[in-house]
Amino acid sequence: MLTKAFIPYKGYYSTPFARWQGTMANENAIILGANTSKRWFAQKNWDPKMFDYHFLGMTIHQHHMFYGATWSAAMMGATGIPGALLMQACSTSTTCIYQAALGVDAGYYKNAYCLMVDRCSNGAHTVWPNPMGPGGEVESENWMMDNFNKDPWAGNAMIQTAENVSKEAGLTKEQCDAVALRRYEQYLDALANDREFQKRYMFPAEVSLSKKKTILVEADEGVTPTTADGLVKLKPVLPGGVHSFGAQTHPADGNVGITVTTREKAKELSADPKIEIQVVSYGFSRAKKGFMAMAVVPAVRMALEKANLNVKEMKAVKTHNPFAANDIYLANEMGIDVNGFNNYGSSLVFGHPQGPTAGRSIIEGIEEVAMKGGGYLLFGGCAAGDTGAGMVLKIG
């Protein structure tokens, strides 16, 4: 259990997420994330030189990724600090926050900044020499699609892991469709009153159209309107499966920034010093081979156990749910209402840039709990390799 790591209220942002091959498709994710953070610091009148450590979280290769953490820190204006590049598939944000919190808790850092970025669009293609192969032809890898489509250990695609869990747990397409529709309706709540909820935390990304012209991406792009009739008509992606394209997430682009610091500094930086956000605990897990959606449950149970809390004490629950089965399985195993969490949206609807996905959900959860007057937030999400991560925060 952590006791000394805090997040300033409003000491975080998420850009909108853009469906792949959209407005952010040609931006280097590191540059876009660093420039977005620099603009955000300027708006808040924060001096980036106050940070003493930086975590850059990302999962899809971009140019100069080798220097990613120190380069992004310098571009943000924190020119004198070291940093680490952290990659843990869809758990990247959660683990960045936890590593920053550990360092603050242990006294290694006073002010750490976590920047999570990714661009699924125009995914990197890696080529290796293969001089002993037939004709000496190269070996290659498409960073996104090849890894979506095959875990080299489990030997199957990510959607197959969701279908494996669905089959074992007895889940149906009707259940998955119902959850997909519910998550879309919850997302619409975030758009009410001219996107009042999203504007609590969302910060626009500035994208270059040419050397002289830029545009601001101020709202999510590519969210698919969802209806009950539309979901019924969609066939499962895999024969005999329960997930259509309407009941799974889509690749996206975007970035998220989160400040982790001491209680005193968090109060100084907070938009409302009366609201305190403490990073309380973290959990991790690995499910059996090919059953990724199951991994969330032991991860959140570990986070709750480390916090000496139970799920009924949570004011809000947020998940990274690339497939509808994730939330159904979690709800059944934890004894909670599948319709009662992920208020205001989730990655099932607004998309999945991978590195920043969990960060946005955690930020949304913080805002939801703050609106409710404070309490505990539980986050849980799966990640490639049949792994999961959980986190508990206290707000108020």
CATH third-tier fold name of the domain at 158-199 and 276-395: Peroxisomal Thiolase, Chain A, domain 1
CATH 2nd-level architecture of the domain at 158-199 and 276-395: 3-Layer(aba) Sandwich
How many angstroms separate the termini?
18 Å
Low-pLDDT windows of residues? none
Helicity, as a percent range: 25-40%
Biggest β-sheet: count, sense, barrel? Answer: 6 strands, mixed
Proportion of strand residues: 15-25%
Q: Provide the residue-averaged pLDDT.
A: 97
Class by alpha and beta content: alpha+beta
Topology, number of strands = 15
Annotated CATH homologous superfamily of the domain at 158-199 and 276-395: Thiolase/Chalcone synthase
What shape does the CA trace take? globular
Tally of individual helices? 12
Query: What's the Cα radius of gyration?
Result: 20 Å
SSE run: EEEHEHEHEEEHHHEEHEHEHEHHHEE
Give the class-level CATH name of the domain at 158-199 and 276-395: Alpha Beta
